[in-house]
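Sample pair:
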Amino acid sequence: MAAAASSSSSAVTERRGIPAASFVEDVQTYLSQSGLDVNSALAFFQERLQQYRLVEMKLLAQQRDLQAKIPDIEKCLDIVVTLQAKKGPGEAVIADFEVSEGIYSRARIEDTDSVCLWLGANVMLEYSCEEATSLLQKNLENARASLEVLIGDLQFLRDQVTITQVTMARVFNWDVHQRRLQQASASKES
């Protein structure tokens, strides 16, 4: 539908593919410029609202994934830093590690120069402790930056949902007001 015209221009037209909602100040002007009747305009706004809800669900899922991923990265980074700190002759680290969900094993870690990191998709690579620290710090920074962008996107999306809901209410209320005026003028004529 070609209902993107608005009586007020928005400073932001979209954010990362999320279209900005247009606030309609003058409903009659909006409807005449867009060439829509009230029901078509409400249907357009309802469809846009559903699109926003779908995007919101996807962004919330990404946010949950990132919020779960950040503590895991921090935990791995702490372990690598601890291994580096305990590096030295005769100093072994005793650690309990998770073999499977709920199953742990105790290990004695002697002086080591490398660690193995899970990269995902059943891939594990061996890195030197310095490389692992660098990689984990970079991944942690990227995850935090992604989370900040995602939070900004969610705020933008919530603003667009609110604007769309307010616009729908304005169009609906304008229609009710017009019908009442028509009924009042019809009752005066009879």
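The CA atoms of residues 76 and 136 lie 8 Å apart.
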